[in-house]
Design brief:
mainly alpha; hpI Integrase, Chain A; 3 domains; three-stranded antiparallel beta sheet; two-stranded antiparallel sheet; 13 helices; elongated
Length: about 300
């Protein structure tokens, strides 16, 4: 008979007795409801491995990496959000098509997802060996901010008026693309917006500039993530602005507020960071360059 228990980390585990020996295994979820759904399946798998021999099963495993990816993504009992599933699918499929990306951060993220996929396949006997790609914990923080001349050029010369308004709203709120691509009137209030994105539900402060932009719109935006990213890169390249990405607007928002003397606590709240420490980690390298010359 199998039982379910939760460790201090919050993750649920299954415990199975076999021939006076207790076998435990992580269920990979912090949801008790999900744990209850998979317990019988995992119990059968554990007993099957013990009786038939796990090594024999793995030795005969012949799944290709593309087949493993399909099973990994479609497995219904991952404790993933919808956004995480889409992200993992995108990273893995792109890796199959063009290999590891050049961007250090995306490259490190892709490595971590590949390793996770391989470990999952090995755990469930779908591959004979879990090969780990080293370097998944190494990435470079992006420090690009858009200077005042570049920002003014974007606001003045981006021809698509609706997208121009979207870009200005992103800058004036410091919001993530995922939080404002599809705004509902029901979530708009006089001084703030209730948004749903990377960190779930959060309140985004609307200053006068942001409120004015929203008031000017007959219809609010309904953009896909890829459209926003590609459209912005295309427009800034046309304007001769190099190495600029849509997310740089958010970084520039925080950077400019700190330069104006806003307390780091306020900036952290406006950005929706989980803690002031997160804000300091992101902006400390940028602000070091603002220190005036000194003599020792």
């Amino acid at each position: 008979m199998a039982s379910v228990y939760r460790k201090n980390t919050g993750v649920y585990y299954i415990s199975v007795m076999f021939q006076n020996k207790r076998i435990t295994r992580s269920l990979g979820t912090r949801s008790y409801k999900t744990a209850r759904k998979v317990i019988s399946q995992i119990e059968k798998q554990i007993l099957s491995e013990l009786v038939e021999g796990k090594q024999k099963e793995r030795k005969n495993a012949q799944l290709s990496f593309s087949q493993l990816i399909t099973q990994y993504i479609e497995y219904p009992n991952h404790d993933w959000s919808k956004r995480t599933r889409i992200l993992f699918c995108s990273l893995l499929n792109r890796y199959l098509t063009v290999g590891l990306p050049h961007n250090p951060t995306t490259k490190a993220m892709t490595m971590r997802v590949i390793n996770s996929c391989n470990n999952w396949g090995y755990k469930y006997g779908l591959i004979s060996k879990a090969v780990k790609i080293e370097g998944g914990s190494k990435w470079e923080s992006r420090l690009r901010v858009i200077n005042s001349e570049e920002l003014q050029s974007i606001f003045d010369n981006m021809n698509d008026k609706k997208f121009n308004s979207f870009v200005r709203l992103a800058y004036y709120t410091g919001a993530r693309s995922s939080e404002i691509r599809q705004i509902s009137r029901d979530n708009l209030f006089p001084e703030y917006l209730v948004a749903y994105g990377k960190t779930g539900k959060r309140i985004i402060k609307l200053n006068r500039q942001a409120r004015r932009i929203i008031e000017e719109q007959n219809e609010l935006w309904n953009y896909r993530r890829d459209f926003v990213s590609h459209k912005f890169k295309k427009e800034v390249r046309r304007l001769g602005i190099k190495d600029a990405r849509f997310h740089d607007l958010r970084r520039t928002f925080g950077y400019n507020l700190i330069r104006q003397g806003r307390p780091i606590y306020e900036v952290s709240k406006l950005l929706g960071h989980s803690s002031v420490t997160t804000t300091e980690r992101h902006y400390a390298p940028l602000l070091t360059t603002e220190i005036e010359d000194f003599i020792l």
